[in-house]
């Protein structure tokens, strides 16, 4: 079996789901929104199911609550997965497209097993890491007991392997990218144990990566790496080729989508740049015509979630009514 496949749904995935329980479901059951969250980290404490008001990943997870509640208010059952390896045995293969896509599907099937009022029609929406997950889900081949109708990818993550070059060359803003490097290294190690963090990172950097595997989420990695010099991250002569090949293989470039897809991007996003997202959209359009690209003036990386809600809802509603929203390919 591949990453993210197989049984153990009740053990591996977040079964916290929301639906309008006090209403009569529509014919065919509640349509489902499967939410793919953005980067929290790779430690078990970073799982959405483990979140609390004082949790280490709450700074990010809290911003999606109002977004998801709006979907519920508009008649959708919302399910949210823990990605593979978050909150359970084993590591989290961060940004592994196949693994993420399987988890956003599996949580839909698990929820239907809990409450048969949940319908078979589902949509996937995700932000950042979850945006990449949404694109992989849109390109998947899925079982017939559920039917994927469309996908929403908000600021989908890309250019992962270039983080190495960015930090090595100390480009402006490389300090912002540094905490993500530790998540990337840990994710690669989880997917391919031959990519050993201690082989490519200095002792100081490797200690931060280890914290990211045990109890530190993205916000804590930002604090831990704040005083780490950029010239003291990689071991001298470290062979990073395998790490870079792994993440090159996880890019959304080359995917063939199978359902209408909305890609949303904030113009003020410096974490996932508009240029990077536009490059993905241009590539996807080469093989599938029903891609809609929308930008949101002044929205930064996290702000793009709320800014894109109305467009995303209208996109899903149009598909439910049998219309394909205006493609931009």
Automatic annotation (TrEMBL):
Query: What GO molecular function terms would the record report?
Result: hydrolase activity
Q: The organism sits in which domain of life? A: Bacteria
**Gene3D superfamilies the UniProt entry points to:** alpha/beta hydrolase
Give residue ranges for domain Serine aminopeptidase S33: 64-301
Keywords of the record, alphabetical order, are: Hydrolase
Record carries keyword Hydrolase? yes
InterPro entries for the chain:
AB_hydrolase_fold, Hydrolase_4, Lipase_secreted
Q: What is this protein called?
A: Alpha/beta fold hydrolase
